[in-house]
Amino acid sequence: MARKTALAAWIGSALEYYDFFIYGTAAALVFNKVFFPASSPATGTLLALATFGVGYLARPVGAFVLGHVGDRFGRKKVLVFTLLLMGVATFAVGCLPTYATAGVLAPVMLVVLRLLQGLSASGEQAGANAMSLEHAPEDRRAYFTSFTLSGTQAGQILATAIFLPVAALPQEDLLSWGWRVPFWCSAVVVVVGLVIRSKIDETAVFKRTKAAKLPVAVLFRDHWVDVLRVVVAATIASVSTIFTVYALSYAVNTVGLDRTPMLWVGVLANVVALAAIPLLAGLSDRIGRKPVFLAGCAACAVLIFPYLWSISIGSYALVFALGILLFGVAYSGINGIWPSLYGEMFSTEVRLSGMAIGTQIGFAIAGLAPTVVAAIGSGKDDWIGVAIFTAAVCAVSAAAIATGRETFRRPTAELGRPELTGVRVS
User: What range(s) does the Major facilitator superfamily (MFS) profile domain occupy (predicted)?
Assistant: First the structure.
């Protein structure tokens, strides 16, 4: 059952986050011209990146609602609902009129649909992570929960890969109909994803647990410190949003690099991450969650400097090498660990709520990072300030986890219960 659940989580997350990430790619490459053409190029780019961040603002709201549903009525209901909502909202983006056709109504509708995407994403990872963790063998929880995140990386590969031929279209075709194709493909995503999710069973530990009438009340009564810890730690996702959205926009719109090789950087980095995430997660099952997570934070804080510098000087060789090292390897030390690290902080009756609320508030902050760093400056030499900002986020996230407890040896039934002392089963 653990393998079946991990596979279902991997495929479901890949499909759902394909939808989520194609928006980020489109925001970086075309939305400034399609929905904000009346603005200056710099302002249009800033507004397009802001619509990407809007989706993250909706996520904390959705986390409270979907966290309650998942802990009160079951994880499966959340997973089916989020996939359906994400697919419908994404397909609708591809049908929107442009600013030239509908005026200001076009970007308004774009923001509304992005909010719906954010609501969906707020419960997706927490639900899949909770289910994978609760089905996993006690000594391999990190390994099995990591498949949700490697699925997310696969979704990013799909999103970037489908934009490669689209981005190669003549500018006129790209801006008129080409950018819509990836969004329309979400219709296939919904059908496949719903078939997969419908076959997942609820976990035994959830079935044995008496659900609280108001899980959020229990969460903030007994676990508020860990919720706060997850919020701060989850801001490390700024590395991802800056790499996938800001750096792409900076390279193409500011430095003038070709968009096709820059898209390939993301593809290859995520291919490497597909292997690195489960390997590093498996390592944390042997030596602990904290050492691997903290090493990933430190590596990201260091590597962001040479990566952005390599973009600024236009060296494609360095961009590829450093991008793969930063996002494919270093960031995988974070992505492979956080599903188990955060989930193990909470007891079964509040696990989905705790993970959803904590991560989505943190992710909301991270989602605004491309907008914040774009406001730092739009010049070719402003990358230094962006790198300093990113390194500071890494340091804060690392501090939050460093002050927490190690949980990898604790039995699943005793997770989130500090009054009990557990011994790892091997």
Answer: 5-409
